[in-house]
Design brief:
Elements (H helix, E strand, L loop, with lengths): L4 E10 L2 E9 L7 E4 L16 E3 L2 H7 L10 E5 L2 E4 L8 E3 L4 E5 L7 E4 L7 E2 L7 H4 L3 E3 L4 E4 L2 E3 L4 H7 L8 E2 L16 E3 L4 E4 L2 E3 L5 E3 L3 E5 L2 E4 L4 E3 L2 E5 L2 E4 L7 E5 L9 E4 L2 E4 L25 E3 L11 E6 L2 E2 L32 E6 L19 E2 L2 H5 L3 H4 L9 H5 L62 H6 L6 E5 L2 E5 L9
Parallel strand pairs: 3-4, 3-5, 5-8, 6-9, 7-11, 8-12, 9-13, 11-15, 12-16, 13-17, 15-18, 16-19, 17-20, 18-21, 19-22, 20-23, 21-24, 22-25, 23-26, 24-27, 25-28, 26-29, 28-30, 30-31
Antiparallel strand pairs: 1-2, 10-14, 32-33
């Protein structure tokens, strides 16, 4: 895609003079394009420089994007550098449900475009009497299908450690934390981005927060060449999400925290999947976006006492936490030898009334090929008994194409139907006979407790062809790399002699 649109002014200082540049690129798509510019001083919505409308706030810009675009020709929202507080005027989470939209940071650097807020779950908006809760704490909720974003930071600037030391009111929008009597803690949920749509893809983005940074609430999500940072349960919920060629960072302020808290539906073949990432443990003390008050620990206690995940789904009807780490490099020693954490002591209590005390019935945890800072294999001898170590053949089946294939596609029967395929390269060790009382779905993971309710539903029986992933809205396979490749990307401006030549190039390295 190329466009013939102006992208707003950029300024260069040349020999002491400020030169304004107007950059253009060519676009063959028929969808409308919009510009979000924090420094824009005109009237919102007025066509300018070829844009359908120019806006100064993210709320106004998103509201202006119409319905009716297609996956092939999405609406395009270009964003000039700036920090955009999504709750500055409303005091509530910005929820956006449009499909077929691409959000594009103009500079090519995610640090230059920041969508954020200072909301958290204990916050009570002005004029109300209820706290926002976890969902309502999100700086932004993207609920549409076929949504792409490149070169953007999604953050929650609540500054959780600062809450504990000095109180949060000084950095909050108009509202209160006192009307409900709920106190704030270091583990206050404060979501940077909530995703509740299908076919959502992100590249060269950052996701910054502490507790509950990234809420993946169903559907298929792809995050590549990006950076995700948090402190506890900071990638969570029931989406099918692939993190690839990215950096996953523990903030480390919360001792004993977990990287993930999946609640994958038992009808969903895959939950959170990590492929070829770097896992780091770096403090965000003094980060200008999420720790402007310098409340985070410089050497957080969590940097030596973290877990790969804990199964949020175990206590939910039909929940079945699915999390897999394949070929990642751990550049931190933060992970405890046991690897995984039970949600609470009740989960391993035989009389718990849910899974009979066996977390293996409501969690699908596995690893393969992960290495340490020296590229040596990680020692997994101390892992909890209810986690798995894949074989090379099983791990090889975890490709982006397989994970995001439509679950009714017979080409990938294990992913959609659960039982072993006749293809020996597909993983699966359980019975493939639907009439067998030991039949389990997905077969590789062994016996499942279908409802987590302790009422005799210890196994998922019958032919799982009757099941389907309830959050996959688009009934087709999905190629997220192709979706991202279709997003127009800005490059760099270059001065030549006395004239101005604007050169556009691909700014993002494609994953292969």
């Amino acid at each position: 895609m190329r466009a013939n649109r102006m992208i707003g002014q950029q300024r260069l200082t040349v020999m002491g003079c400020v030169v304004s540049l107007v950059a253009t690129f060519s676009l063959t798509a028929t969808g409308n394009s919009y510009l979000l510019d924090a420094s824009y001083g005109g009237v919102d919505g007025v066509p300018n420089g070829g844009y359908t409308g120019v806006y100064k706030t993210i709320n106004a810009a998103l509201a202006a994007v119409p319905s009716g675009a297609s996956a092939a020709n999405p609406n395009l929202l270009f964003v000039n550098p700036g920090t955009y507080n999504t709750a500055a005027t409303t005091g509530v989470s910005l929820s956006y449900s449009r499909s077929n939209v691409a959000l594009i940071g103009m500079s090519g650097n995610a640090d230059d475009v920041v969508f954020t807020s200072t909301l958290d779950s204990a916050y009570v908006p002005s004029g109300t009497t209820s706290t926002l809760g976890t969902t309502g704490s999100a700086s932004l909720q993207l609920k549409g299908n076929n949504v792409s974003a490149v070169n953007i930071t999604f953050a929650n600037s609540t500054d959780t450690p600062y809450i504990v030391s000095t109180g949060h009111q000084t950095v909050s929008p108009t509202g209160s934390y006192n009307t409900t009597g709920q106190s704030q803690t270091a583990s206050q949920p404060a979501v940077a981005l909530l995703l509740q749509g299908d076919e959502q893809a992100f590249s060269n983005c950052k996701f910054l927060g502490y507790q509950d940074t990234l809420y993946t609430k169903g559907g298929r999500v792809y995050i590549t060449n990006s950076y995700v940072s948090g402190d506890n349960d900071f990638m969570f919920a029931n989406g099918t999400v692939v993190f690839k060629n990215s950096t996953i960072n523990f903030d480390g302020d919360h001792s004993g925290g977990a990287m993930t808290a999946a609640s994958t539906d038992k009808r969903t073949s895959n939950g959170l999947v990590f492929l070829n990432n770097k896992i780091t443990g770096n403090s965000v003390h003094g980060n200008t976006v999420i720790d402007s008050q310098n409340g985070a620990n410089v050497n957080g206690p969590g940097l030596s006492s973290m877990y790969l995940g804990r199964p949020w789904g175990w206590q939910q009807t039909g929940g079945d936490a699915g999390t897999v780490f394949i070929n990642n490099q751990f550049l931190t020693t933060a992970i405890k030898p046991v690897g995984w954490l039970a949600w609470n002591p009740n989960e391993t209590n035989v009389a718990n009334g849910k899974n009979g005390g066996n977390p293996a019935e409501d969690s699908r945890y596995a690893e393969y090929g992960n290495t340490d800072v020296g590229n040596s294999s990680i020692d997994v001898s101390g892992r909890v008994s209810w986690s798995h170590q894949f074989t090379a053949g099983q791990a090889s089946a975890y490709t982006v194409a397989n994970i995001f294939s439509y679950e009714g596609n017979p080409q990938y029967p294990w992913y959609g139907n659960g039982y072993p395929s006749t293809d020996a390269s597909m993983p699966g060790t359980g019975s493939a006979n639907p009439s067998d009382p030991n039949y389990s779905w997905p077969a590789f993971w062994g016996d499942r407790n279908s409802q987590n309710d302790g009422t005799g539903n210890d196994l998922i029986l019958n032919n799982p062809m009757s099941y389907s992933d309830p959050s996959w809205i688009v009934a087709a396979a999905w190629d997220p790399d192709a979706q991202l490749a279709a997003v127009p990307e800005p490059g760099s401006a270059v001065l030549l002699g006395l004239g101005v030549l604007i050169c556009w190039r691909r700014a993002r390295k494609r994953s292969r």
